[in-house]
Amino acid sequence: MFELKQLHYFLVLADELHFGRAAKRLHMTQSPLSRQIQMLEHTLQFPLFKRNNRSVQLTPAGHAFRAEARQILTLAENAVSVARRHSQGQAGRLRMGFTAGSSYRHLPRLLAYSSRELKELEIVLEEMVTVQQVEALQANQIDLGLGRQQPNQPDLDGLCIAREQLLLAVPEEHSLARKTTVTLDDLRSEPIITFSPKDGFYFYALIDSIFRRHNLQPTYVQHVSQIHSMLALVSAGLGVALVPETAEALHFDSVALRRVKMPPVHADLYLVWKKSNTNPAVKTFVQLIRKRTRPASTRN
User: Fold this and answer.
1) Domain tally, the chain
2) Same domain as 69, residue 54
3) Looking at residue 150, what DSSP letter applies?
4) Secondary structure class of 203 (helix, strand, coil)
5) Are 112 and 54 members of one domain?
6) What is the value of pTM for the model shown?
7) Within 10 Å of residue 73's Cβ, how many Cβ atoms?
8) What's the pLDDT score for residue 182?
9) Main-chain dihedrals φ then ψ at residue 137, nearest 5 degrees
10) Helices 60-87 and 4-16 sit at what angle, rounded to 10 degrees?
11) Contacts of 124 (CB under 8 A, 6+ apart)
12) Which structural domain, as residue segments, surrounds residue 31?
C-alpha cells in the first residue's frame, strides 16, 4: 500500500509537471522524488506520468488518480483535525443530568455558552433529581450533573454556578400579595405547599430548617417535587409556598412572588462531575462555564 507522503509528492509533481520545480517545492532533491514516484507507480502497477528528456505529462490514469489522491489527503487531514478537537474536548459528546428547576433559567444559559463557543460539542440531556445525578455520575452514566447539592463525595468535584434567594409564592388575591415584603411571622397560620422529602429533599430540608430556626410550626398541606407544580397549587388557592428565584421565569398566572424578610438563605446550584472522568469535553466545558459565570462559591 502506498504512503500518504507519496500522494503528496505525486500531487506536487502533477501540479508542476517538472521534477526540478516539484523537488524545490518539497525541499528535497530530484533523485529521491523520482524514486518515490517510481515506488508509487510500482505499488499501483500502472504509470502515472509520461517522461522524456524534455517534458513530464500525466497519463490518463494519472489524471484520474490525481482527483482521488487529493480527496484522500483531504480526508486524512480532516481526520487528524477532528481527532485533535475531540482530544482537546472541543468536539465530541457530553451526557448531562439536570433538575427540572435548573431548566427554567440556568441550564439554557449554560447551553447558550456552549453552542456559541463549542459548536462541535453535542450535549445529551437527561432530566433527573440531584440524588439520581450523583448515582449516575458514580456509575459513569452521565458526565456532568446540574443539581442543588454541593458534592460531598471525595471522587466528585463541583462548581457553584448560581445562588438564589427564596421568594414567597401566594395567590394574586391573597392579602400577602398586597405587601412588597412579607415576614416569616406572616406565615404562621398559612397552609404551606412544600417540596417532597423524597424527590425534592434539598429544598424540603432547606425550607424546613428556616421554619425551625424561627420556632414556626408550619402546616404542610401538599408535598410535590417540581416548582411548576407548586405554583399550580398556589394558583388554585391551596396554600402558599417558598420557591427559588427561578420561579420568576415561569410567569404563572394568578400567582404573585414576594420577598421574605429573613436572614439570608440561599439555594445553590452546582455543576458536578466525577474527578476520574476521562472525557476531555468535561474539562473544556467546565473551564468555559468557570470563565463565563461568577460562582458564589467553588469546591476544588
Assistant:
1) 3
2) yes
3) P
4) helix
5) no
6) 0.70
7) 16
8) 93
9) -65, -45
10) 130
11) 93, 94, 95, 96
12) 4-87
- Same domain flag for 148 and 170: no
Q: How far apart are CA 72 and CA 91, in angstroms?
A: 23
DSSP-H helix ranges across 45-93: 60-87
Question: Using one digit for the tens of pLDDT, what is the confidence trace for 147-161?
Answer: 988 888 999 999 999
One-letter amino acid for residue 190 of the chain: E
CATH number of the domain at 43, please.
Answer: 1.10.10.10
Whether 185 and 208 map to the same domain: the answer is yes
What pLDDT, in 10s, does the model give residues 215-260? 999 999 999 999 999 999 999 999 999 999 999 999 888 999 999 9
Cα distance between residue 13 and residue 2, in whole Å: 16
Residue 193 is part of a domain; what is its CATH number? Answer: 3.40.190.10
Q: Residue 93: inside a domain, yes or no?
A: no
Sorted by sequence, the CB contacts under 8 Å of residue 259 that are 6+ apart come out as: 165, 167, 168, 180, 181, 182
27: left (phi over 0), alpha (psi -120 to 50) or beta: left
Cα torsion 249, 253, 259, 260: sign = negative
Considering the domain architecture, whether residues 18 and 48 belong to the same structural domain is answered as yes
Question: What whole-number distance in Å separates Cα of residue 168 and Cα of residue 260?
Answer: 7
| 233 falls within a domain | yes
Residue type, 163: R
Helices and strands, number each (H, E), in the chain: 9, 13
Burial of 125 (0-12, 13-18, 19+ CB in 10 A): middle
Q: Are residues 28 and 56 in the same domain?
A: yes
What does the pLDDT read at residue 265? 84
Q: Is 299 helix (H, G, I), strand (E, B) or coil?
A: strand
Question: What is the C-alpha to C-alpha distance for residues 1 and 83, in angstroms, rounded to an integer?
Answer: 23
